[in-house]
């Protein structure tokens, strides 16, 4: 079992390396492309047209995916594949219906600023249909844990899309939405072709025979006259009724922007870019921590039991880890909030030029830096809460989340009317604040009958707080005097001031949070070294 775990860790590290490499390449290509595009064009592509694409794809396949990936892989795959092919006509239906809405009921951008909008709507709808052609192959691969195929296919399709975008934007900037129409079609085509080529080569091979793969011929992947699995069909219908609500809540901000016209296309474009930049921290730092320690808490403590009925050694270990984990993400979040305020404008100027660093962009990223602090705390508190909640508590929490999501959409609308695109981030902060309050209340109640108080992890030392305040003041004045229109020498001085303040903050953390430093070394650095060797 230990050898298998080592092999899995090694394989996962390789996949993560490939994924990060492609992400870095994509990040660089996007940064280059931004200097050749207008805010309005980015807003139409990244919000309006991407919302059309994601809505079609979600409504056409989400219910099928959830139904067909439930249960064992030992099933009649011919009937399951037949059922999955129904996503294509369903995708055609949604593409036509929503395409008409996008063309005739929503505000059409000015053709002199964003040309070829109609072609963009058609192309993004068509790309959704092309992607659905690979749905049976995707589910088959996912059910049999072909993780490498998924990572490589998605990475190649994204890099192909970004590369063609850069070429066309530089050579033919006047094409407008034609550029993004072609690249979106390329993305969907490359993604589907990766799966097709793989399965054409895999089926009938010695490897497939060795694994007793349930599908033996390529012809078996095509739709035929065999009936579908009616149990899966009924389950699909049950999930389908939920998918409308889930999609609205998932893409709530974009629907508010698109249907209520609270922001112009330029502000939508800047908001989307800043939102994607800010979320990098959550995806690459906080999400792996949450996923790893959710498994830890779920394995150490028994779900549904109160603290007195648990093994006290396990309770002590879980409380200690939770306290240190809260302290860790709190300090990461505070560091990003404090230094993000003074360096948002510089970061946006380096990444996207004056198109991002002027106007609302810096204020958006500053607010997002604060939102990262909320994300950090909420991730860990909910991680522990979800690991311990019983089924009834989870059901009640889902109902609360539903009500909270609708409240968030309403608050987003009013705050955006009042304070522009910053209102969306303020609404997100309010939403996260309520969720943090719920989770911390659960944690407090859980441990109140014990001697452990893990929520003290949310209280940094007063001296460290003072250092954060001083660093924030110094870097704030540094931004006023040296950034960002006073030349590169002034920028270097501003960066140097930030580096000195950051070094002072890090040194203070090492002096005041010795227990946390030991925890990080034992839980993260030693694990990384073991995996590396």
Q: What does this molecule look like?
A:
The chain has 533 residues and is an all-alpha fold. The chain has 20 helices and no strands. It is globular and about 70 Å long. The two termini are 18 Å apart. The model is unreliable at 1-11 and 527-533 (pLDDT under 50). It holds the Pfam family Rft-1. This is Protein RFT1 homolog.
Distance between the termini: 18 Å
Number of helices: 20
Main sheet makeup: none
Give Rg in angstroms.
25 Å
The portion of residues forming beta strands comes to under 5%
What oligomeric state is this? single chain
Query: Low-confidence parts, pLDDT < 50 over ≥5 residues?
Result: 1-11, 527-533
Instruction: Determine the structural class based on helices, strands and strand pairing.
Output: mainly alpha
What is the residue-averaged pLDDT?
83
**Rough shape?**
globular
Helical residue percent? over 70%
Number of strands: 0
| SSE series | HHHHHHHHHHHHHHHHHHHH
Q: How do you describe this structure in short?
A:
With 533 residues, the chain is mainly α. It is built from 20 helices and no strands.
List the SSEs and their pairings.
Blueprint: H1 2-34, H2 39-68, H3 77-84, H4 87-104, H5 117-132, H6 135-143, H7 147-171, H8 177-202, H9 206-210, H10 230-250, H11 252-260, H12 265-300, H13 312-352, H14 354-357, H15 361-388, H16 391-419, H17 422-447, H18 462-482, H19 488-512, H20 514-532
Helix pairs in contact: 1-7, 2-4, 2-5, 2-10, 2-12, 3-6, 4-5, 5-8, 7-8, 12-13, 12-15, 13-15, 13-18, 13-19, 13-20, 15-17, 16-17, 18-19
